Amino acid sequence: MKNLNVWPNPSGRISPCRSTSPTLSLVRFVPPSPSSVRCHSSLTHHTFRCAVLGAGFAGLSVVWHLLKQSPKELNLRVDIYDEVGIGGGASGISGGLLHPYSPKVKLLWEGAQCWKESMELLRVAEEASVSKDYRTGESADNMEAFIAHKRGILRPATDMKNMIKLNDNVKTCLPSCRVQTLNNGEAQSLLPGVYLPFNTAFYMPEALNINSGHYLQALFRGCEILVKESSSLDSSQKQLKLHIRSVDRLSEFEGEYDAVIVCLGAKVNMLPELSGRLPLRTCRGVIAQLELHEDMKGYPERAPSILSDAWIAVQGSHSLNLGSTWEWKSVNSSPNVSSDEAAKALDELLPKASTIYPGIKDWVFTGARAGLRAMPPLTTLGSLPLLGCINDVIGINQTCKYWLFGGLGSRGLLYHAWLGNLMAQAVLSFNEEVIPSELRSWKAIEPKCSFLL
Ligand SMILES: Cc1cc2nc3c(=O)[nH]c(=O)nc-3n(C[C@H](O)[C@H](O)[C@H](O)COP(=O)(O)OP(=O)(O)OC[C@H]3O[C@@H](n4cnc5c(N)ncnc54)[C@H](O)[C@@H]3O)c2cc1C
Questions:
Q1: Where is the FAD dependent oxidoreductase domain (predicted)?
Q2: For 324-352, b where at least 16 C-beta lie within 10 A, e where not — what string?
Q3: How far is Cα 406 from Cα 264, in angstroms, rounded to an integer?
Q4: Which domains are assigned to the chain?
Q5: I want to staple 418 with a disulfide (CB 3.0 to 4.6 A). Which of 117, 252, 390, 446 is the partner?
Q6: For residue 89, how far is its CA from the centre of ligand 1 (angstroms)?
Q7: What digits encode the pLDDT tens for the residues 136-184?
Q8: β-pairing, 153-156 with 200-204?
Q9: Which residue, by CA, sits nearest to atom 48 of ligand 1?
Q10: Does the Cβ of 63 fall within 6 Å of ligand 1?
Q11: Of the residues 306, 373, 404, which should be mutated to test ligand 1's pocket, given the most ligand atoms within 8 Å of the CB?
């Protein structure tokens, strides 16, 4: 692997900078030592210019970490480009279910780290949401209440064959996100009326249901606050700007930026430089919004959301989201759902949900929205997102470094925080090897025709 640890000098040329960190292959999960970025500090007059393409979970997480990790003395400009705005893609419509387990309650790859860092970014967003000058038009109290519902998630066993496996997996759960095995009586006391086909459910009391739109707005606000704070404390300048603009090709950024980080979700394949070159498949998902008449007794105040063949993400006592469909190979990224598509989704989701929560029959459909997932290949470690420097994929010798942060699949909330942190470290140290090899191994996969849009 070539040493990528270089930094642009004030004249705009690239000059090598020797890393002072120990053997790079051994520092996989350790942030680069401050000295690896401190060697750039003599370049105080140069502004390091970063373009982040996409303002979803991936884009905003990397922005936060770039601002947080950049050395005090470094002038940094971060420009975010999104054709819709914050949460304009799958992130803005996501169901918002957050826990570190597979459907069989197996701890996912690096689940502990992912969970810890997601909690940290959630804390950042929650703090920003109650900051004095929060400007969304909603009251701060309202905003905080809606960022995360901390009511836990219930996963009923739906398959006898897998019961032994599920019970085994539970033993390796995290202390910070516990999984408790409940019998029918225990589940009933949490959620009266729940039906457990095999008399067993797995309960994650710390699992969350995030309001993705509010979370992203608040995280962006957290980034703005960080810029404001560092500008008043540090000698250097930090700048952050959101541009509502469509990106047609990567070459638009050549010459203007030192680093371009591509976080375009499922639409990444639309860029001519990357089209057909990434091992990603797309999958559209529809979520239905249901409400209960106000005269009826609502969903119990502290009762958990439900994760089953369909999931129920509780929004309030009389409002919930029901998801989600899986339409593989769709290229439709529109959040809008036609009445035909909504009817089809309800036909599929309602029977699944009512098996576990028969009370859903009293709820009334009020609307639907949809998003397109960018699904990475399945590996022996699970479906891992795709990260890394993509100059070699694009195949041109640029002075700018292009990076990919994509393929978050159906677990963007879990992965975005830790991987955004790693991506920022890689960009700031110009060292791709900061990113675990498991997340870079996609480069060895030959894209198949089915990856082409
Ligand atoms: C129905 C559904 C339910 C889901 N539920 C969950 C869940 O409960 N929990 C969970 O963890 N994950 C869930 N996911 C997955 C999660 O939403 C994704 O993993 C995540 O949103 C991906 O984030 P991203 O930032 O990579 O992409 P996106 O959120 O899609 O962000 C990409 C951004 O790039 C912008 N963009 C795209 N093309 C261009 C262009 N050419 N020019 C400028 N801007 C552009 C878009 O407007 C968008 O804002 C769900 C997904 C779907 C579809």
A1: 50-425
A2: bbebeebeebebebeeebbeebbebbbee
A3: 7
A4: 6-90+213-278+379-451 (3.40.50.720), 147-208+281-375 (3.30.9.10)
A5: 117
A6: 4
A7: 444 444 544 579 989 999 999 988 877 888 888 898 899 999 999 999 9
A8: antiparallel
A9: 89
A10: no
A11: 373
